[in-house]
Write a structure and sequence with these properties.
It contains 5 helices and 6 strands. With 207 residues, it is α/β, with parallel strands linked by helices. It folds into 2 domains: 109 residues, Trna Endonuclease, Chain: A, domain 1 (3-Layer(aba) Sandwich), CATH 3.40.1350; 68 residues. Strands 1-2-3-4-5-6 form a 6-stranded mixed sheet, sandwiched between helices. It is rod-shaped, with a radius of gyration of 46 Å. The termini are far apart. The mean pLDDT is 79.
């Protein structure tokens, strides 16, 4: 209930809410986060169920103080009755704003001072990182597919080379066989078999 009232209060200030997913990298997360398009405003709402716990209040304020390094402005929101136990001057010194509520009334008691985060805050940085990560993943997948295709092509080229070498060797053997004269059982080359001129020469030699 308190969160909804606080959310409506900041909406009336013209702010837009930042999605919790954009703050998942933070060690301590605010109850709500808003932006004016340029600056990041954090809001920590003290849980009603912990009103009687001094330790809970100390923990709440320590976590709020730690968040100052991650935003441009920060507020704590507490019930009006609890505001009396909070040191307003200390909050001013730390630059933390104070908002109190009672019934339907919600009021800014201490104005938040503009802070200087350790790392410049850019609302669109996380979204850009997501897009870049997505594109890198696509490139990695594409490279993996290309590497697989190159390996397949290399295997096919290797097979073709082996076939060509084998074919060339076979052609060489066939050519050598074709050039060599065939010898009959009697020891004569095939070109001398049934040759009429050789027969005439043989007859003359016998005369």
């Amino acid at each position: 209930m308190e969160l909804e009232r606080v959310r409506e209060y900041f909406f009336r200030q013209g702010l837009s809410e930042i999605e919790p997913s954009e703050l998942r990298h933070l060690e301590f997360k605010p109850s709500l986060a808003f932006t004016d398009g340029k600056n990041r405003i954090f809001v920590n709402v003290f849980p009603v169920g912990s009103l009687t716990s001094r330790n809970a209040l100390i923990k709440f304020m320590m976590e709020t103080a730690a968040l100052r390094e991650q935003c441009n402005k920060i507020y704590v929101v507490v019930p009006k009755l609890m505001a009396t136990v909070i040191d307003s001057e200390l909050l001013r010194d730390m630059g933390i704003g104070l908002i109190v509520y009672s019934g339907r009334e919600i009021k800014e008691v201490v104005k938040a001072r503009e802070l200087k985060p350790k790392v410049p805050v850019d609302i669109d940085v996380l979204e850009e990182i997501k897009q870049i990560s997505g594109k890198l993943k696509m490139l990695e997948d594409m490279i993996s597919r290309l590497e697989f295709q190159v390996e397949k092509i290399a295997e096919e080229v290797s097979k073709i080379k082996v076939v060509r070498v084998a074919a060339a060797a076979e052609e060489k053997v066939v050519a050598e066989d074709a050039e060599a004269p065939k010898v009959e059982a009697e020891g004569l080359p095939s070109y001398m078999r049934d040759n009429p001129w050789l027969e005439i020469l043989r007859q003359r030699g016998s005369e």
